[in-house]
Amino acid sequence: MDREDTKARIDTLIEPFNKKNVEITESTSFANDLEWDSLTVMDFVAAVEDEFDIIISMNQQAEIENYGQLVDAVAKLREG
Amino acid sequence: MTEASAQPHKPEPVAEPDGAVADLFSKFDPLMKQRRELLDTGVTDPFSLVMERVLSPVTAVCNGRETILLGTYNYMGMTFDPDVIEAGKTALDDFGSGTTGSRVLNGTYSGHRECEDALREFYAMDHAMVFSTGYQANLGIISTIAGKGDYIVLDIDSHASIWDGCAMGQAEVVPFKHNDIDAMEKRLKRIPEGAGKLVILEGVYSMLGDVAPLQEMVAVAKKHGAMVLVDEAHSMGFIGPNGRGVAEAAGVMDDVDFIIGTFSKSVGTVGGFCVSNHPKFEIMRLVCRPYVFTASLPPSVVATATTSIRKLMHAGEKREHLWTNSRRLHLGLQELGFTLGTDAPQSAIIAVIMPDLEQGAAMWEALLREGLYVNLARPPATPANMTLLRCSLCAEHSEEQVGQILAMFEAAGKAVGII
What we know:
The complex is a heterodimer. Chain A is mainly alpha-helical. Chain A has one domain (3-79): ACP-like (Non-ribosomal Peptide Synthetase Peptidyl Carrier Protein, Chain A). Chain A is built from four helices and no strands. A seven-stranded mixed beta sheet of chain B has the order 4-12-11-10-7-5-6, with helices on both faces. In chain B, strands 1-2-3-14 form a four-stranded mixed beta sheet. A three-stranded antiparallel beta sheet of chain B has the order 13-16-15. The chains are: A mainly alpha, B alpha/beta.
C-alpha cells in the first residue's frame, strides 16, 4: 500500500476526467488547472471512493485542493 | 431567487492589487457581472418581480396585468380559504400580532400547541415541533442530532437548508449521486463501525419535481442501522392517500425517524416543523438552537396553519384534481415539444429545461407578457447547471386555466424560438 501504488491507481481514474489533457503534477489544482466543476468533482470523488473502498467526506474534500494532497489523503485513508 | 437546492454557493475569492484595502464584497463580482450582462440584453429582471395585488391562490396583478400564477408553492390553494382566513383574523383579535418571544420562554401560546396537535394527527405520529420557518426546521434538527464524529449520508441535490444544517452540526458529510440507491448503500457500508448515521432524503426534489425511490432507500438505510430524515416540503397535502407525502405513498412511514415539513407550501402560510416517533424527541425543544434562539410564529400564523392542516386531512378531491392538472400540463408541454425534467409527471412541479440562461430569461419574460408567471431557476440552485422554468400547479387551477397556460407556452415558445 505504498504511495506509488495509490498514485498509479488515481492516475488511471483521472484520465477520463482530464478532458484537456493537462499535465498532472503534485501541485495540479482540480478547480483551477483541471477546471472541474462541482459535478465533475463529485463523480471523480465517487470513482476514487469506489476504487479504494473508502469515504472521502465533504469535510475532508475541503482540505484537498491539488493532486498531491489527494494522493496523500487517499494513502492515509487506506492505512485506515 | 427563492431557494437553492444544490450545494452552497461558494464564491471564488478575487485577489486585490497590492496595497489595496480588501473589499469583502469583491467575491461577488463574478455574479454581479453575470447579472449585469443578462440585464444588458434588455430582459426584465426575473428576480425582482412585484405582485401588486393578489386576487386568488392562482391569479395576481403583476405590472398592471392580471397574471396566472404557475410558480408558487401554493399547491393546495389554501391561502384564500375562508375558514383559514377567519381563523387568522380571530387569532389576531384575541392574541395580538406577535409573541415577541422564544418558544421556550414567553412564545408558546395555546395556538402553537394546537398547531402541534394538528400535525401529530395529520401524520399519526407521537411528537411534533413547530419552527419559525422550514429552513430553520432543517437547520435545527439536522445540526442538533448529527454532530462531530457522526456521519450524514445525503443526496447531492438536497435543499440549501439541509446542506446548511449539515455544515452547522460539523458531522462528516457524505453525499451520493441523486436518487442512486447503490451509491447510497456503498457509502453507508464504508462508515466506521459504531459511528452515528443519519440518512437525509427528500420526498420530492423541487428543482425537477422528481420523487425519491423511498421504499428502496429507506430499507437500505435501515439495513445499515441509520436513522432516516425525509424532507416532505413539496409533497405534504398532495402525495399519499392522506397527503402525508412520498413516504406514505411508498408505505415506509414507520421506518422514517423524522419528517421535516413546511407551512409555506401546501399549508399556505409560513413556518416549519418536524414530526417523529422517537421516544426522546421532546428534548429537542431545549437543545435545538434554531428553535430556542428565535421568536415563535405569530398567533395568526399558527391559527391559519392549524386550520389549513386540519382541512388538508380531508382534501382527497383536491388532491385528485391537482393530479389531473399535473398530468395534463406535463403531457401538453411534451406534445408542444418542450424538454421536461421528468419523463412522467411525478409531483405538482413540472420543470421545463431551457437551453441556457439567456433564452430561459427571454422565455420567462415572454410568458409574463402573455400573462403567466413561472419560476426561473438557474445555477447554483439547479442540478447539472441547468436553467429551468419551473411550473408548480395548484389544486385551484381550473381546467380552463390549464388550457390557457398551454396556449401561452406555445405562443411564447414560438416567439423565443425554443419550440
